[in-house]
Amino acid sequence: MIDGLGMTSSWPHRAALFWTVAYGGFGLVCALTDTPVFAGGDHRAPAGLDWSVVAIAALAAAALRSRRRALLWTACALSAISAFGLLMNVITLVFEQRVDDPVAAANEAFAALGVVLLAVTARSGRPSGRSVCPPAPSPAPRSARWAAYAGALAFVPYALMKTTWAVGGTFAGTSGAEMRAIAERNGASGLWLTLESWGIDATALLAALGIFLIFGLVRPWGQVFPRWTLVLRGRRVPRWLPLTPALLGAATLAPYGVAGVGYAALATAGAVTIPRGDFHTSADALLVSWIGLSAFGVYGIALTVAARSYWLRTRPTCA
């Protein structure tokens, strides 16, 4: 039978229905046991907000039941908001083999899965022609390319700061040895400390990968595997391969960086006091915050622009 999205019941639709039951059940259990599912740093949101997880799952179930694409995209957007912070937890898990809050991390992973399933379900009902033709590789418009350059340049001061500490130098009144001791005290993994001993900061390495990603989104070589991939060279890059980390990074870094820059601006104006944390003075902490948060904010916005351009330029055409 054809559903309201113009398609037969498909595996994304069935998987999304299963997800609504699982995610709603997860939120209900957490709400009834007063276990907060939302956390930010050392702070946890009230357990009463857990009911929003149940509400998102219920909305998604209603959208899937009614086959209304607008409701599906609404539930998808709300799930994306609930998944905020997943990127930070993934980075922490990779380099430290732990997460700050397992329940919050589980909620973010659940929500991110829902984003994928709901988006695929919403798009699966689009009509298509007899054949689908991938477009020829093309560069992004000049505005998107300049945004990518700005995003890459924003990470340069951040990478230099972190590399200075990794090689044993001093920045913002804090030496590399002090930063290593802080990392050990905070439970840094052996992988993290090994990279530091080689003069490589893990976050600076991630910044380099981020720059590679954003350039791939705006240049033609980001749509075709290059020669050094050997067997894959010349083949088209699946759209989801660069878009998945791009969308995840943009959804996390853009709001985090923009909000953080706003807070740093208030601290600079004296409206709020920024805690010194592991640094010697609040001024040192503020300087480091400006460098890090500005990098995240500018790069996050640039990544959003580049991802949108890549999405539009790689849309298949129907023949």
From TrEMBL:
Protein's name according to its UniProt entry: Uncharacterized protein
Keyword vocabulary terms for this entry: Membrane, Transmembrane, Transmembrane helix
Organism this protein belongs to: Actinoallomurus vinaceus
Phylogenetic classification of the source organism: Bacteria, Bacillati, Actinomycetota, Actinomycetes, Streptosporangiales
Ranges that cross the membrane: 47-64, 71-91, 103-122, 143-161, 198-219, 240-266, 286-307
